[in-house]
Design goal:
Structural class: mainly alpha
Number of strands: 0
Largest sheet: none
Radius of gyration: 32 Å
Order of helices and strands: HHHHH
Distance between the termini: 69 Å
Length: 169
């Protein structure tokens, strides 16, 4: 065997000058010359989005309209009208949740719904109020409240099977 490291077995053991350094010698430490980075907020701490604010306001107005229509329908046709009014309210709350993908999407129409129902509950100076009988009033209030709470506190919006590339068959 020769004494020359450029030939034979010794050459295979010798490190190459242009070879990359092994991963163990690389440092995972952050660069010292990089400026510090502040992470962005999420949820309620995120920057306000004008489109999201406009969408929530539109959902609140829809909630007020559904409450007004539901109040009139449930008072006019007691058993069937109450079911229609509650299904309309629950559909709006759930639709807002699905549309925005957040709990605020269900809370925005619920706030509009609650404000409208409480204003209509206050009545007039003559003692009248929009609701028909007291049983319908209680069922409409409890049913709407339960629907709003259920839609606002669901843990996760269901995902479509087509989003993940699955056909569902």
């Amino acid at each position: 065997m020769s004494e020359n490291p450029g030939k034979g077995r010794d050459r295979a053991r010798a490190p190459r000058a242009d070879a990359p350094r092994p991963a163990a010698s690389r440092s995972n430490a952050p660069r010292t010359n990089a400026p510090p980075r502040v992470p962005g907020g999420t949820g309620l701490t995120a920057r306000p989005n004008p489109a999201r604010i406009a969408g929530c306001l539109a959902l609140a107005v829809l909630g007020a309209l559904v409450a007004l229509a539901g109040t009139l329908v449930q008072a006019a046709w007691f058993p069937g009208g109450l079911v229609i009014a509650l299904l309309g309210s629950a559909g709006l709350f759930y639709g807002g949740r699905i549309l925005t993908g957040t709990q605020i999407g269900a809370l925005a129409p619920a706030v509009g719904w609650f404000i409208t129902v409480f204003v209509l509950l206050s009545g007039r100076p003559e003692g009248d109020y929009v609701f028909g009988d007291e049983l319908g009033l209680v069922l409409f209030m409890l049913g709407g409240t339960a629907a709003a709470v259920m839609c606002a506190t669901t843990s996760k919006v269901p995902q479509s099977a087509t989003r993940n590339g699955r056909s569902g068959i």
